[in-house]
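REQUEST ID: PR-0412
SUBMITTED BY: lab tech R.K.
PRIORITY: routine
TASK: structure prediction, single protein chain
INPUT:
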Amino acid sequence: MPQLDLSNLNTVLCILGLYVLAYAFLSVKIKQFWYLGEALPAVIVGIALGQVGTRWIDPEDWGMQMANGSELQNNITLGMCRIVIGVQLVIAGFQLPAQYQRQRWRAMAICLLGLMTIMWLCTSACMLAAVPKLTFLAALVIGSCVTCTDPILSQAVAKGPFADNEAGANDGFGFPFLMLAVYLIRHASSPEYLDGEAHAERSVFTTSVLSVRQEHQDIHRHGIGRLKGGVGVAIRNWVVETWIYFILLAIVYGAVCGFMSMYATKLALRKKWIDGEMYLLWPTGLGLFLVGTCGLLGTDDLLACFVAGNCLNWDGHYLEETEVRHDEVNSCIDVLLNFGGFMYIGAILPWDEFSSAATGLTYGRLVGLGFLVLLFRRIPAVFALYKTMPEVCGDWKEALFMGYFGPIGIGAVFYVEHARHLFPEPGEAETEEENNLAAALAPVVYWLVFFSIVVHGLSIPALNLFLKWRGVTPLIDEKGGVEMDLLSRHSSIPKNARRSVSQGRRGSVIVHNRFSRVSMSNMAEQGDAGLSGISRRWPQGIAWDDDDALSRSQSLARDQSPKGRARGRSDAQSLRPSVRPREISFFDERSASVPEPSFGRGVQG
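STATUS: complete
OUTPUT:
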């Protein structure tokens, strides 16, 4: 006899499928006209259908209490974050240019060591200022969870080689900061802890104290809570366990898997053993394999995934082949992971903990903390170091942009869930410092994730409305655009693109980096200094206004020969009045970089 089956699985699949269909129906409007991206709508839907809404998505009902007292939801959240970030870091890694890490090692070293250290300390200072009952070490733990720039949200704002590289690398490089603070707390011998031990020794005959001591011994056996030993033991364990085993092993293991994948895919192509679908799915399989094996080994799976993605395309062959095959598989996997991950985050936001007398948190404090972190987490660090990275950040305007757009997202959720496994539950720790930290850890980090998704997700739409209101003239890319083929006549033209007039590519468009702000008057001034670098780009980067555009572009291209450059200057000057860019772009950021031909994922509106 037929009967309804209102199980959690059926409900979640129904909601996720319906959301994908609804988003797909309006995807061009959402991405290219409203500039909302993928994260913010998914989080809003998750909130509406989660624990504070209809409760149709309630992860608390997905499993029973575990034997050790911790909820299964924490393990589900940690596992979800590992899968989503791991797979996407492999994809982001192979989409970088060949040997990019070797070419930009100096700038990346500054970002991973200098920039992240300043960000960590500034963020921890914000925690001390806004969150009550926290010690300095506890603030360092919470600050380390939100230090990294989220690799998923950052791609929705600033798409380019260096932006992807920094976000991907620092998301796996956050463990040294987290574990240093964790080791200092766990190996500290505070007066409170010593007084508690002395009291327990004097009262050992009482049943209640015996049970407390047994509970603490069980906690120590599981590797959480206070382990004593002092600062020396903490630093030694930090160097050996974190830097050597966790970081160095992850880099080596990821590089080995990445290079083996590079040679394996080239061999399979040469022998014609691999078909198109499996070739494009290789990064996803590699990401899942690394997440699983690194979890078994207990090393940094995120860093290993990003390194493996880099090494997969170390010679540039894999990315070149995916472009020839018009890869949309990895982009679709990205989108599905984003939908599921951010909808889940919206459903599990701990709204009841955002205002609590036990932690001293209120919505006013959290809003103030959000703005403090927005202003002081990344901007001061970038301003302090941007002159040491001239190839990445040219002036203070670009530094301000790079500092502002450092979103906090699913990476912070991963770190907070990992940190929660290192400390006892609130009220079960041996010191007040640990109890206060355990109580404030999740609500503070989850609030900052929500705050960042909303603020950064609405920044581009707000800026677009402001530019339209001010009547800002259209701008183009000083480096020229990237020519990309439209696979169907029904494909929409991105907002930062125009149809190409190149000979032989009638169905292509010229895509411009939306963050550049170089006006046509500046282009003309640069042309007066010499034709080099301008006449080569105008035929691709500009939509000509008259019907003779194709013949003009062909003649101007011929002028790039050594014999034609002498007369090319006058020809280019005669063409300037007919040039008129039509689209609006946004603030400069060289860290967002001009899109390069090696990036075939499509265009972010």
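NOTES: The chain has a mean pLDDT of 78.
REVIEWED BY: pending
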